[in-house]
Amino acid sequence: MTDFMTRLPQMLSTPWVPWIILGVIVVGVLLGQVQKHVPDDPIARIKKTFGAEDMPHGVALAIVLLWAALGAVLAAGLLTLLAEIAWSTVRPETPTGESDFRFLLTKATALTAVLGGLIALPFTALRLKHTATQTRHAANVLFNEKLNDANTDLHARYQTTEKQEDGTYVDIWKDDIIRRNGAIDRLEALAIERPVMAPRIARMLCVYLKEMSQIFPAKHGAVIVDEPIKFEKVDHKLQRKDMEFAVQVLGKLSDKAGILPAELATDLSGTNLQGMDLSGLDFTLANLKRTSFEGATLTDTVFERAHLVSANLSHTDLLRTNIKGANLSGAILNATWLQETKIDEHTILSVANARQVILRRVDLSKNNSVEKLLASAYGDGSVKLPEGIEKPEWPNEEKDGWYFFQIYDKHIRPQYVKLPSRSKLPPE
């Protein structure tokens, strides 16, 4: 063994060693170039086996070659040690020979342990990969169970007994609003836990709202044929708390889950959102075609680039509401209060009906589709109109909220039956 260690530096200093190293590098580069044209690349199979598909091919090849080279060197060294041990057994026994023999056994033991660890390294990596896969699978199973439980509770009902007018008792089924609200809350938590599942959860809530809107449709006032014509004002009270909560979760999901509104793809077309508190919610890029918003609170709500075609926004206060880039073609804005509403040149305001609209501190200067909006609107000097649009007979100066309150009670309220007086102004 001493002779081997003495000869090793001489062997490494020979001229052919650099050529061997260069040859290994060249072979590695060539393998990296041709691997794209090989239908069954062994390096690609190794990366897939160890779950390292994203690792660069050159790095994976270098690791494989290094592992093979280390294994070959250790195996060669171990065989050399075993040969020297065998040779030592047939030599005459001397005190120095016994010491060298014990030293050879110690080195052989250490080298065997290192070689065993090197051979076991891939199997250890595979075991860790399988453990991680099993852990991930268990987490997915648990998540899907929680998702299914929440989805089941979305249509929870309970049985109760009610007394009839004739004194008899009957068992009836009612929707369990409390459990449904709890299910919606759990769906929100699951979307925050796994943002990648947020679009799926959003689709569940959208379907729920559409189905509930079939059972609890929007209420629209009928036209009362009289002289002069009046319009029935329906009391747009909130019909279902669980429906409102579902919409509120949808409007906050993009921000809480940290995903883009385009990925969320909210579709509430044809739903009944009457009387709901939608303040501060984000419906960017949402599909709100034919959606009923009458009586809803829309303060600071974002409808940027939303699809509001044929939506009904009557009797709502668009206070600081963002409708930049929104499409309001065919929308209904009867008795709607627009104050500090954010509008730009991309907002389509070719509404179908806009009777008795109140405009205050609204910049319409960049929009050229405001004719129908201005036809019977009330405004003041704070409203900026596009060039070429003749200003209606409005005050030149900015009026306070009390002025518009009086207009509302004097000119708008008489046209609707059962329309209550405004007890307070929209927030300043």
Question: Could you explain how this protein is built, in words?
Answer:
By secondary structure, the chain is mainly alpha-helical. The protein has two domains: 2-89 and 99-130, no CATH class; 174-417, Pectate Lyase C-like (3 Solenoid), CATH 2.160.20. The protein has eleven helices and eight strands. It has helices at 2-12, 16-34, 42-49, 57-90, 95-153, 177-193, 198-215, 241-257, 261-264, 371-374, 401-412, and strands at 157-163, 169-175, 223-224, 230-232, 317-319, 337-339, 358-360, 416-417. The strands form three sheets. It has a three-stranded mixed beta sheet with strand order 3-4-8, with no helix packed on it. A three-stranded parallel beta sheet has the order 5-6-7, with no helix packed on it. It has a two-stranded antiparallel ribbon with strand order 1-2. Strand 3 (223-224) and strand 4 (230-232) form a beta hairpin. Helix 3 packs across helix 4 and helix 4 runs antiparallel to helix 5. The protein is elongated. InterPro entries: 5peptide_repeat, Pentapeptide-BTB/POZ_domain. The chain crosses the membrane at residues 16-34, 55-83, 103-126. This is Pentapeptide repeat-containing protein. Keywords: Membrane, Transmembrane, Transmembrane helix. It comes from Celeribacter baekdonensis.
Per-chain topology:
Elements: H1 2-12, H2 16-34, H3 42-49, H4 57-90, H5 95-153, E1 157-163, E2 169-175, H6 177-193, H7 198-215, E3 223-224, E4 230-232, H8 241-257, H9 261-264, E5 317-319, E6 337-339, E7 358-360, H10 371-374, H11 401-412, E8 416-417
Helix pairs in contact: 2-4, 3-4, 4-5, 5-6, 6-7, 6-8, 7-8
